[in-house]
Write a structure and sequence with these properties.
By secondary structure, the protein is of the alpha/beta class. It contains 13 helices and eight strands. The protein has one domain: Alpha-Beta Barrel (TIM Barrel). Helices cover 44% and strands 12% of the residues.
Length: 328
């Protein structure tokens, strides 16, 4: 890792720790569109919405100046379906308190020109979803040729040596046997990989949960191997604490004390504020209104997605994870 990449990698934990202290949201997730070109088995967002009401790019910066999140995630749907995505990123970066920006995409519309345009606009991390290290990924996402496209484009983007490509994978019963191979694929492509846990909240489909005694034993063994691979290769982006908690989530059937609406929140395409994408009818006009209303009555513990995993950690754990980053 070069000196520039190292200094950039410190930005996220430093800004997160700052926001703990000033009591501002750690992460804001902008769903820039609900339209999507995939029909993923683990997601309820699919299809195109030509009449969808969308905020113009200049409105995004206003949210940043008001709430000052440490990290902004641009997601959907599929954010690359928006022709004005670079303008959205530029608006966020030009705000008074520019955050670290992560774009989450299925990658089907990704090419080198688009990547360079996004980077020029101010994108920090490109996070590409991948469930399997082979054509099983196409079946799970229901997009023919998706894996072949990612296997071609991701190694090419890594040649720019920006250290900014991260494959993200939601661990489920279906892909549990493939996780080590997925890590090896990322090593070969010279990109990082980050893991989270499948949740049945979106679709109600519990068959992808890991619950049997045998599967939990395999998950525990796999997590131990992933932690070893993290130490050996540095390719796994998750702190060890989060990898361990993924196992606990499946073992216990949930993790309590969700910080939705407090440490992270969603902004829908039309600009409405939402504490959690799993509960879309919970809509608020301001963060303060959300903060006073939703967290005190939130008893949900049925997900351990990335935004929750990174924001639920205590300040002490944030410091420990930063020390782990320095070590490895």
């Amino acid at each position: 890792m070069n000196a520039l990449s190292l200094s950039q990698s410190f930005i996220i934990p430093i800004k997160v720790i700052r926001n703990y202290l000033i009591k501002k949201p750690l992460i804001m997730i902008f769903e820039v569109t609900l339209s999507c070109n995939a029909r993923c088995k683990h997601c309820n967002i699919t299809g195109h919405y030509p009449d969808e009401k969308r905020m113009p790019p200049e409105d995004y910066g206003k949210y940043i100046s008001d709430l000052r999140p440490a990290v902004v995630e641009l997601s959907g749907g599929e954010p690359l379906l928006r022709d004005d995505l670079t303008e959205i990123i530029r608006s966020i970066k030009e705000s008074a308190f520019p955050p670290y920006i992560i774009l989450v995409s299925n990658g089907y519309l990704l090419n080198q020109q688009k990547y360079l345009e996004l980077k020029e606009a101010g994108l920090d991390i490109l996070s590409v979803s991948m469930d399997f290290p082979n054509e099983e990924h196409d079946k799970f996402r229901r997009v023919k040729g998706l894996y072949a496209h990612l296997a071609d484009i991701l190694p090419k983007l890594s040649l720019y040596r920006n250290n900014d490509i991260v494959v993200n994978c939601a661990i489920s019963w279906a892909n549990l046997p493939y996780l080590e191979d997925l890590v090896q694929r990322c090593i070969d492509w010279k990109v990082k990989v980050s893991f989270s846990a499948y949740s049945a909240l979106r679709t109600g489909d519990e068959k992808y949960l890991i619950s049997s005694e045998d599967d939990l034993q395999r998950l525990q063994e796999t997590i131990e191997k992933l932690i070893a691979l993290k130490r050996e290769s540095g390719v796994i982006a998750n702190p060890t604490s989060i990898l361990i908690n993924i196992y606990k989530f499946f073992r216990d059937g949930g993790i309590p004390d969700c910080s939705a609406g407090k440490r992270f929140l969603f902004v829908q395409p039309d600009g409405k504020l939402n504490p959690c994408a799993m509960f879309r009818k919970e809509v608020f006009s301001s963060w303060r209104e959300m903060l006073n209303d939703f967290p005190p009555r939130n008893i949900c513990e049925q997900c351990y997605v990335a935004c929750r995993a990174y924001t639920d950690r205590s300040l002490w754990t944030q410091f420990k994870d930063l020390n782990e980053f320095i070590k490895y």
